[in-house]
TrEMBL record:
Domain Transposase IS110-like N-terminal: 22-160
Domain Transposase IS116/IS110/IS902 C-terminal: 236-315
Gene Ontology molecular function: DNA binding; transposase activity
Protein name (record): IS110 family transposase
A Pfam entry, by short name: Transposase_20
GO annotation (BP), single: DNA transposition
Listed InterPro entries: Transp_IS110-like_N, Transpos_IS110, Transposase_20
UniProt superkingdom: Bacteria
Species in which this protein is naturally found: Sphingobium fluviale
Length: 363
């Protein structure tokens, strides 16, 4: 080794066993790494490939047992988090929105500054950033499928709206439906009428119809597989006994929670999904605002949809439905369904934790 390498090696030997905190600013290819000690002094700064083995190689000279916390933002690098946790490292996954406010203290936003800021967050800001739960693999796979389904539905709706606008532009009328083959059968009569008027839009419309019908077929196949998966799962099949809760909502709720034991009180699930109002207080003034919308937007949407079905379509009577209908008369459907969605989340979590079935007499 060169004299410089010898000096660096000796320096690391001296630091071995000294407590330190790690910040990782992960990217797809590279991860910025920063190690700081209990006084905030930088022990190491650099970049490595986004791989757990490379991170462990950096930590080894400083003493693996001396690691107090490895802080990383939620998002890219989940696979690395799982590997580090499996090796026994204390990994803390920080919520992006709260971590970003802490990182904004520094004027220059760079990967190295973010890595140092995350290390500082782990050292002095244990209560500043809400920890993100790293879901089990089966829950993560379900989330991926549900997100794919959501995006496919959005694309289908956009194409439906585009076809509808083309037909309406030329004076036609077209009703869209989510059923397989409905759009293709409904468009034929309209194209015939337009051709009779001397308008030929086949070249513009037919490719869109083909894409929309393929999306419908794929979504229908996904729904069939997801329904079978929900019925075969003991937790999800039990959650589906709740009026208004279908296979998509049950799977969405199950995959978003992952581990029900992390909620000491069942009512904490309402704020977890952003279904409780925000409060702004300053001195003698206090204002209650809209719901916080924290947590999973996808599952929150599914819960509100289930609440809407419970209030508007479900024939099975229950105390929860009666409570929601009474509230609807007072505050309207928009607010009532959000309140019922929060109640649904609490009821579903209680059923999951206790293993009990739905009780129509309880709210």
């Amino acid at each position: 080794m060169t004299p410089r390498q010898n000096a660096m090696f000796s320096w690391r030997i001296v630091l071995a066993g000294r407590r330190y905190w790690v910040g990782l600013d992960t990217g797809v290819a590279e991860t910025a790494v920063c190690l700081i000690d209990e006084f905030g002094e930088i022990l190491f700064e650099g970049k490595r490939e986004t791989h757990a083995g490379q991170i462990k190689d950096i930590l080894r000279p400083f003493g693996v047992e001396a690691v107090q916390r490895i802080t990383i933002e939620a998002g890219v690098g989940t696979h690395m988090v799982r590997e580090l946790q499996a090796q026994g490292f204390p990994v803390y996954v920080a919520e992006v929105r709260r971590a970003s406010k802490f990182l904004a203290i520094r004027r220059q936003k760079t990967d190295s500054n973010d890595a140092r800021g995350l290390a500082e967050l782990g050292r002095v800001g244990r209560t500043i950033g809400a920890e993100v739960f790293v879901k089990p693999l089966d829950c993560q796979n379900l989330r991926s499928l549900l997100n794919v389904r959501k995006n496919l539905i959005q694309q289908r709706m956009k194409i439906d709206a585009l076809v509808q606008s083309i037909v309406r532009l030329h004076g036609g009328k077209l009703k869209t439906s989510s059923g397989v083959g409905r759009l293709a059968s409904g468009i034929e009569d309209q194209l015939e009428i337009l051709r009779a008027d001397g308008l030929d839009v086949d070249a513009d419309v037919r490719p869109l119809i083909s894409i929309a019908e393929n999306l419908r077929s794929h979504i229908a196949g996904m729904d069939k597989r997801l329904r079978a998966a929900a019925l075969a799962h003991p937790v999800c099949s039990n959650l589906m006994t709740v009026p208004g809760v279908g296979p998509i909502t049950a799977l969405s709720f199950y995959s978003a929670i992952g581990d029900p034991s992390r909620f000491q009180r069942t009512r904490d699930v309402g704020p977890y999904f952003g279904l409780t109002p925000t409060i702004h207080q300053s001195g003698v003034l206090a204002r209650v605002g809209r719901i916080s919308r924290f947590g999973s937007k996808l599952t929150r949407t599914h819960l509100v949809s289930a609440a809407t079905v419970l209030l508007c379509s479900t024939k099975t009577e229950s105390a929860l439905q009666a409570w929601g209908l009474t509230l609807r008369k007072k505050v309207g459907l928009s607010k009532a369904r959000v309140a019922v969605a929060r109640k649904l989340a609490v009821v579903m979590l209680h059923m999951w934790k206790s293993g009990s079935s739905f009780d129509p007499a309880r709210t």
